[in-house]
Specification:
about 220 residues, mainly alpha
Length: about 220
């Protein structure tokens, strides 16, 4: 851990800390929503430790609370998390052979974005692990707090907690939009997702947004 943090400058460490804290707030929201939907406090806590995939966890709880079967909710969660397949290929060199199992479990949109934004291999590796470990700790602490405070928080939308997760992701991708080709691909993906949202279950429009990558393929 000391080697990881020595490799990173203060600015990057600050950004990692802010993202981890923001995810912790989202974790509070998830824990509160889960217990508020009638689940026991143990469920969001165990899922966060074993699954550790915020979007899939939100989707699972939402579908089951709406009357869907746990099996269908689990399949939907797997579909949402299928985006980790290209993520894994993008950061395979960062993880190395010895760190692939633990590194795969700690993989999130945020630490992949941080890693790919670094110029050299050492900083990519340090950013990935620093962000992944920080988010894992903050997320699980937040979920634990939210699970036991769910009856007090009640309507999480009133506190704006539901907006924290997309706000974090938006802040991470904004610097990449300076590139024109990337910007065109993002706009195309967003258009596909918006068009599909009224017709498909939550999470699937995001997967379809990957079609925006075809813009880069055609241009190059």
């Amino acid at each position: 851990m000391r080697t990881i943090y020595r490799t990173l400058d203060r600015r990057l460490l600050r950004d990692v800390a802010l993202v981890a804290l923001a995810d912790g707030v989202v974790g509070v929201s998830y824990g509160a929503i889960s217990t508020g939907s009638g689940f026991g406090a143990w469920l969001p806590v165990v899922m966060s430790l074993v699954v550790f995939a915020g979007a899939a966890q939100f989707l699972f709880v939402g579908l089951v609370a709406a009357g869907g079967s746990p099996f269908a909710a689990a399949v939907a969660g797997l579909l949402v998390n299928s985006r980790h397949l290209p993520f894994g290929m993008a950061v395979s060199e960062v993880l190395g052979r010895r760190g692939r199992i633990l590194g795969s479990h700690l993989m999130t949109d945020e630490n992949v974005a941080f890693a790919l934004a670094q110029e050299d291999a050492a900083r990519r590796r340090a950013a990935y692990w620093a962000c992944g470990i920080s988010i894992f700790v903050c997320w699980n602490v937040g979920v634990l707090a939210g699970a036991f405070a769910g009856t007090v928080i009640g309507d999480t939308d009133a506190f704006g907690l539901d907006a924290a997760f997309p706000a974090v992701l938006l802040a991470l991708v904004l610097p990449s939009l300076k590139d024109r080709d990337t910007r065109h691909a993002a706009v195309a993906g967003a258009a596909v997702a918006l068009a599909a949202t009224p017709f498909l279950p939550a999470g699937l429009p995001v997967l379809l947004a990957l079609a925006g990558v075809l813009v880069l393929v055609v241009r190059r």
